[in-house]
Design goal:
Length: 584
């Protein structure tokens, strides 16, 4: 049986499992049928260039994109550490965003060049079918005029429904449009804290808004409340660094159709340590202002100013969520945990089941909750994808049935105790592992055991490792067939030539495609590039780097003279000590 005998539906299913470069190389221009199926595929799935090699990216930009650009529906470009300067390279090929006339979704990640952002925002006005726009991890030095042009150009997109903005500006600019969007329904703004008067202005310019997420600064000095009922909003997610009951009430009282409310509060400012909303206060807010609320999730991190009778205060807080309003009427349960050994540490209060993406398990934790003791379903934290486990192996752990089954990212401090293995029954979904090391006792065997049980692990990072533990814990002897990304910057030393040579011949070094490392001198870098045969991206910090913003960048000049001309070399615009090289 040959491929041409397969049905169109079966071939389209097969295409979903192939990387874009393999798909185009294998099937494009074979015949009219395969060309048509490839175009159908790209109308349904994202053309995502994150984690692609420079060679493959150049190939696609030269040979395929000009011919199929008008058939692409979803496009993702990224300048992150895996693919540095990718968006620049895309433009150098003579490609423009406006060529993708049928584009429905555009994602731009880690773009930190003002000139390129201005160029792109002038082009996306021609994307008349664009419904989804994502700007993630972008750091710009825009003044207020250009920042305003950026946000207005987005609100001017006539069919835009979804917008995710994670942007930081050099100046204290805000993201408030001066033009109205009649299409936007889902808006997520991250990276910049907005006051209520700024939210008012945004609401006015987004009359169809249904789902809104933002960093909200509820400040008692801000007297501009939400000015009129905003009936279209049914889902709201708030991140707050300060909280006051009267301000929350004034903000929510004009959203009577709210169906889902998620609140994430980190309230650690000294002036606000007592401003914790208890169950009685939340009940009053919901009863009086949110008659249609069905889903309510919150997480609050706080401290107690008066640490005397700490557990008594916690018991009083938990009891405020024990009424029939919480337990019988809504079936809403809460849980509180804190460090039983440290009276000045943070206290965490949250609804069950735990619905947030991350969780910190970093001390001798004690738990109290309102859920029935015979109900263990709430103790499975299935929404948690990122866990930080920071415990000493000798610390006491209070009895708890908490377990994490769906972890994708794990930060763990070694050595670990037996509790760690019961907390995480399986690691089959783990793709990123960040380790910190307290001492070298039993480290190698524990870490290798963990690596043996992570079949999908892609990235291994060392976060904090003292040079006193070397060479026992260098990653030369560890094995894991799936790892392709190594970050060794957590070692508090610069690697010498001999260590880098050993690394390049180790199992992890041979299969490594993306490497972060601190080295003693320039010459070592050349040896790394020559010896690590699968390396496509290298991020280095060099001990003898003499970078000064006022002078020529001697290291960049030297690298361009000594590395192949195909290498794309740049200094990170945010973290100046990082040199980023997209090799192949």
């Amino acid at each position: 049986m040959n491929l041409e005998s397969f049905s169109n539906e079966l071939l389209l299913d097969l295409f979903e499992y192939l990387p874009v470069v393999y798909l185009l190389r294998a099937f494009y221009d074979l015949n009219f049928r395969f060309n048509n199926l490839i175009l159908i595929h790209f109308q349904r799935f994202d053309l995502n260039f994150r984690s692609i090699s420079q060679y493959d990216f150049n190939l696609i930009c030269r040979q395929y994109l000009p011919a199929i650009a008008d058939c692409i529906s979803f496009l993702t470009l990224s300048n992150d550490d895996d693919t540095p300067q990718q968006i620049d390279l895309f433009l150098e090929h003579g490609l423009t965003i406006s060529q993708f006339i049928n584009l429905k979704s555009l994602s731009l990640c880690d773009l930190c060049c003002d000139e390129i952002m201005i160029k792109l925002m002038l082009e996306w006005k021609y994307l008349v079918n664009l419904t989804h726009l994502t700007l993630a991890g972008c750091y710009l030095k825009f003044d207020q005029i250009n920042a305003q042009r950026l946000i207005d150009s987005i609100w001017n997109l006539s069919k835009l429904i979804y917008c995710y903005l994670n942007i930081s500006f050099d100046e204290n600019n805000i993201l408030v449009p001066t033009v109205m969007s009649s299409s936007l329904k889902y808006v997520f703004i991250w990276g910049i804290e907005h006051c209520q008067n700024e939210i008012n202005a945004l609401f006015k310019q987004t009359p169809c808004l249904q789902y809104f997420s933002i960093l909200l600064n509820i400040d008692s000095n801000d007297n501009n409340d939400v000015e009129y009922p905003f009936l279209s909003i049914t889902k709201l997610k708030l991140y707050l660094s300060r909280i006051q009951e009267d301000r929350i009430i004034k903000f929510l009282q004009n959203m009577p159709n709210l169906y889902q409310l998620i609140v994430d509060i980190c309230c650690l400012d000294q002036d606000y340590t007592n401003a914790i909303l208890n169950g009685y206060q939340w009940k009053k807010i919901i009863r009086n202002n949110l008659p249609n609320l069905h889903i309510f999730r919150f997480r609050m991190e706080f401290q107690l100013t008066n640490e005397n009778n700490r557990e008594q205060h916690i018991d009083e807080l938990i009891n405020s969520f024990q009424s029939s309003f919480w337990i019988k009427e809504h079936n809403w349960f809460i849980q509180c945990h804190w460090n039983s050994m440290n009276s000045s540490s943070s206290i965490y209060l949250y609804t069950l089941p735990y619905s947030f993406d991350d969780f910190n398990f970093n001390y001798s934790m004690k738990f109290k909750s309102t859920y029935p003791n015979n109900n263990n379903n709430y103790m499975h934290y299935n929404h948690v994808h990122s866990l930080k486990y920071d415990m000493s192996p000798i610390e006491e752990v209070f009895s708890s049935s908490i377990q994490f089954f769906n972890l994708q990212t794990l930060f763990v401090k070694f050595p670990v105790n037996d509790h760690f293995w019961s907390l995480i029954p399986k690691f089959n979904q783990l793709t990123s592992l960040i380790i910190s090391i307290n001492d070298d006792n039993n480290i190698q065997s524990q870490l290798q055991f963990l690596l043996d049980h992570t079949p999908c692990l892609y990235s291994l990072s060392f976060s904090s490792c003292s040079s006193s533990f070397l060479p026992q814990i260098l990653p030369f002897e560890f094995r894991n067939k799936s790892i392709r990304r190594l970050d060794l910057r957590g070692y508090d030393q610069y690697f010498n030539d001999e260590q880098c040579l050993i690394l390049s011949h180790s199992s992890l070094g041979i299969q490594c495609e993306i490497l972060f490392i601190k080295i003693q001198n320039y010459q070592i870098l050349l040896n790394i590039v020559n010896n690590m045969i699968n390396l496509r991206t290298l991020i280095i910090q060099c001990e003898n780097d003499k970078f000064n913003e006022t002078n020529n960048d001697e290291l960049i000049v030297w690298l361009k003279d000594h590395l192949p001309s195909t290498c794309i070399i740049s200094r990170d615009l945010i973290f100046y000590c990082d040199i980023r090289i997209w090799i192949r």
